[in-house]
């Protein structure tokens, strides 16, 4: 039988406090206040109406030439690109919180879309995609006959 030394709860709280302080110092050394959000980049908003899905992606500083947008398998949307960091001449960075570098976002839509009719616009750093639902995915009204 293994035995362990008993420690009062106050000792454990002190250990947790020291651990938290060490983690805070670690994140501050990388220029942040804490861990980065778990959400992917770029941030997306997705909604639908009866005929279309709409996707908005925040891409400040991006140009359409730096983006690749694919629809595969009928319902898989891929947004790929690379945002280059600004070049600072004769300056010193104090904080860099905006994400830079290559990115890929893969989104599975609940129903197939018509890839040939997808529209993409980039206005003021916001990419807006309109993805028409395939005809097979749209609800069909069934007429009821009375006898």
Describe this structure in words.
The structure is a single chain. The strands form two sheets. The chain has a four-stranded antiparallel beta sheet, with no helix packed on it. The protein has a three-stranded antiparallel beta sheet with strand order 3-4-5, with no helix packed on it. Helices cover 14% and strands 31% of the residues. It is built from one helix and seven strands; from the N terminus they run αβββββββ. A hairpin with a 3-residue loop joins β1 (44-48) and β2. The protein is flat, with a radius of gyration of 25 Å. It has one helix spanning 9-29; strands at residues 44-48, 52-58, 67-72, 76-83, 101-108, 119-123, 126-132.
């Amino acid at each position: 039988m293994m035995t362990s030394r008993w420690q009062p709860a106050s000792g454990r709280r002190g250990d947790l406090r020291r651990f938290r302080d060490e983690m805070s110092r670690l994140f501050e050394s990388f220029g942040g206040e804490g861990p980065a959000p778990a959400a992917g980049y770029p941030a997306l908003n997705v909604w639908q109406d009866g005929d279309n899905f709409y996707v908005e992606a925040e891409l400040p500083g991006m140009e359409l030439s730096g983006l690749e947008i694919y629809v595969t398998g009928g319902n898989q949307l891929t947004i790929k690109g690379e945002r280059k960091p600004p070049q600072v001449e004769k300056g010193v960075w104090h904080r860099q919180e905006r994400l830079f570098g290559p990115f890929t976002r893969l989104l599975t839509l609940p129903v197939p879309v018509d890839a040939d009719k997808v529209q993409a616009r980039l206005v003021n750093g916001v990419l807006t995609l309109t993805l028409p639902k395939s005809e097979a995915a749209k609800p069909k009204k069934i007429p009821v006959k009375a006898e």
